[in-house]
Specification:
3-stranded mixed β-sheet; 11 helices; RT_dom; DNA/RNA_pol_sf; Reverse transcriptase domain-containing protein; two-stranded antiparallel ribbon
Length: 297
């Protein structure tokens, strides 16, 4: 499993390649002229001692923050998807099957914007074919793979992982990778998949704990920030009881003690804290109910 990291994704897109993609997809000429005019009219300036020192025109890349840029970038990345599909159909590499018995539902790669994962066997020829495909993709689109941040993940028994990693020129690991924040291959009921989210919450609490915040300010942070941090994970997994208890423990400690370990007693029962404000509570999310609601959407 190869997880390439695309370097400066938006800033490296080749305009000529993009315009050819739009033509190949048969976009209307008028619409293509709008896109071309929007991109080619952009001006860039370099700040010297805080002041703009002249302007020059851009020759590649997509504008950051432009609502049109993500869609255009997806069209460019779709080229890689089509190239991998052609290589797979030619029998040059193969992915894995969702159902090994029926050999249906083969997965060769996953793409979401610039977050890419490519699957193949531990085979010298397959790895070389994937590398050649990536090199061709780079030369056409202008995008570059940052090998220092790219990782080859080993699944199952592989005799010499460093041999295949050397072909890509990247590092390798046996740790389960993450894709879109989701730990691939992890057991759904394993509390360990929540460790990164819990650690992220604790790191925020450590930063806030050094500040002299009032109860009101801490309550706002509990409801607006801490309460929303598990949203993505809650929409995917049923949180174990131990995880919910750890999250609520962190919230309680921050609300009443500012994140510090002390013996200061809570001023309000935690059940009342989780009650809606309209019913006399503090409006802090009931994490179990929040988890159930996210899973049922």
């Amino acid at each position: 499993m190869f997880k390439p990291d695309i370097e400066k994704a938006f800033d490296s897109v080749n305009w000529e390649c993009l315009f050819k993609i739009l033509s190949g997809l048969e976009f209307l000429e008028k619409w293509k002229s709008w896109v071309k005019g929007s991109m080619c009219s952009s001006m860039i300036s370099v700040l010297v001692n805080g002041e703009a020192n002249g302007y020059f025109r851009a020759s590649k890349g997509l504008r950051q923050g432009d609502p049109l840029s993500p869609g255009l970038f997806v069209l460019v990345m779709d080229v890689l998807s089509m190239m991998l599909k052609v290589v797979r159909e030619a029998g040059k590499f193969k992915g894995f099957y969702m159902n090994e018995d029926s050999k249906n539902g083969e997965v060769t790669h996953l793409l979401f914007a610039d977050d890419t994962v490519i699957f193949c066997d531990a085979n010298h020829d397959q790895v070389l074919n994937i590398l050649a495909t990536i090199v061709c993709f780079q030369s056409m689109t202008g995008l570059r793979i940052n090998l220092d941040k790219s990782v080859m993940y080993i699944v199952g028994d592989v005799a010499d992982p460093s041999f295949y990693a050397a072909i890509f020129g990247c590092k390798w690991s046996r740790q389960p990778p993450k894709y879109l924040g989701f730990p691939l291959g992890a057991k759904l009921n394993d509390p360990a998949i929540w460790d990164s989210m819990i650690n992220k919450m604790k790191s925020k609490l450590n930063g806030w704990g050094s500040r002299h915040l009032s109860y009101g300010a801490r309550l706002v942070l509990c409801t607006a920030v801490l309460g929303s941090m598990p949203t993505y994970m809650f929409s995917l997994f049923k949180a174990p009881v131990s995880v919910l208890q750890e999250l609520e423990r962190s919230q309680r400690r921050f609300l009443w003690n500012g994140g510090r370990d002390s013996n200061r007693r809570a001023l309000v029962d935690w059940k009342l804290c989780k009650t809606e404000k309209s019913r006399g509570g503090l409006g802090i999310h009931d994490l179990k109910a929040f988890n159930d609601a996210m899973l049922s959407k």
